[in-house]
Amino acid sequence: MLFLHVFRTLQGKRITVHVKNGIVIEGTLQSIDHFYNIKLINTETKDAGNLNMVSTLSTAYIRGTSVLYIELPKDEIDLNILHDATRRQEETEK
């Protein structure tokens, strides 16, 4: 649950979610649960193609199983701390 904690510290920050069907949604992270279901507010859609209804959403609920990957703001993440925490978690699971 290390990464869930990282995502929860990013609530209120702008993230970009790439969905498996090719849609890219950027918005402010409002909430995320342990299934990685994401709620974004103040969204902007990129690469929505001809899906006009998606491009006009102000709030988006994205199911965790449909997420391809998530772009996080570089200035909000301390990679050294994240690397160390990942190593410690791996060692405790052995």
TrEMBL record:
Q: List the Gene Ontology MF annotations in alphabetical order.
A: RNA binding
- Taking every annotated instance into account, which residue ranges of this chain make up the domain Sm? 2-76
Any one cellular-component term (Gene Ontology): precatalytic spliceosome
| Principal location class | nucleus
Q: Which Pfam families match?
A: LSM
**Superkingdom of origin:** Eukaryota
Which SMART domains does this UniProt record tie to the protein? Sm
Task: From the Swiss-Prot or TrEMBL record, state where the protein is found.
Answer: Nucleus
Protein keywords: mRNA processing, mRNA splicing, Nucleus, Ribonucleoprotein, RNA-binding, Spliceosome
Give the similarity note.
Belongs to the snRNP Sm proteins family.
Query: Under which name does UniProt file this protein?
Result: Sm protein
Native source species: Trichomonas vaginalis (strain ATCC PRA-98 / G3)
